Please model this.
Amino acid sequence: MVESLKMFYTSVGRKLVMALTGLFLFVFLLEHLYGNLLLYKLDVGKAFEEYSAFMAGNLIIRAVEYGLFGGIIIHILDALFITLANRKARPIGYAVSHQSKNSTWYSRNMGLTGSIILFFLIIHLRTFFFPHRFGHPETTMAYDVANAFQTSWYAALYLVSMVLLGSHLNHGIQSAFHTLGRNDMKYRKTLKSVGTILALIIMIGFASFPIVFYFDLFGAATNILAN
Ligand code: HEM
Model:
């Protein structure tokens, strides 16, 4: 038991925690995307509200929600620990850097993209989650979503954040597969493609909301706001 606890203080253990929390957050994103897609049903946001009410009212899902926020915090702390440990191990840096040849932009900027996603998340929770979970707003959640994206800077912030989220996931998913041991040559190319496809699904799926509601494509915004 003590040995296995010690393992999490090693760099291998930390990478494992990073991979597992990252995959857990990715599964949440798939679930969240499914729920949000219900906003496109053109039913005045009814299906979306029912789904949200079910999620908020289910005890098991509420418990998983605590796990979600725990997972986000652990993922961030772990990233900080790994970065600091890497800096300590290599404080001066290489005399000649071939970074751009040996690594991708996605992998070199995980800290930057992760920080911007955290900034996005704070604004996001403040707009949608806290008012409805802890307050008594007069409007529905579907109304708030459609309404928020009528503001150009807010829609633009989401769009940029979703592109960076796509970049973060593109490297993150691959890296998690690698850490979890599925990275032999035979599978490397396939897993890289799988990671990119999954990242694209999340990126395009979430980026569609600011675009569709801002431009009122297929009357999605009017359907919710005019009723
Ligand atoms: C761009 C499209 C998005 C829309 C329209 C959207 C909408 C919402 C709404 C309406 C809620 C409140 C749900 C509730 O209280 O039941 C919510 C919660 C939340 N969102 Fe988003 N979201 C989007 C993207 C994202 C992304 C990309 C992330 C993560 C990087 C994220 C993370 C969260 C979290 C952690 C919560 C609180 C936990 C939960 O409700 O389950 N959202 N979102």
Notes: The radius of gyration is 20 Å. The pocket of protoporphyrin IX containing FE is lined by residues 32, 36, 52, 55-56, 65, 117, 121, 124-125, 128-129, 132-133, 141, 145, 158, 165, 206, 209 (CB under 6 Å). Residues 56 and 65 are 9 Å apart (CA to CA).
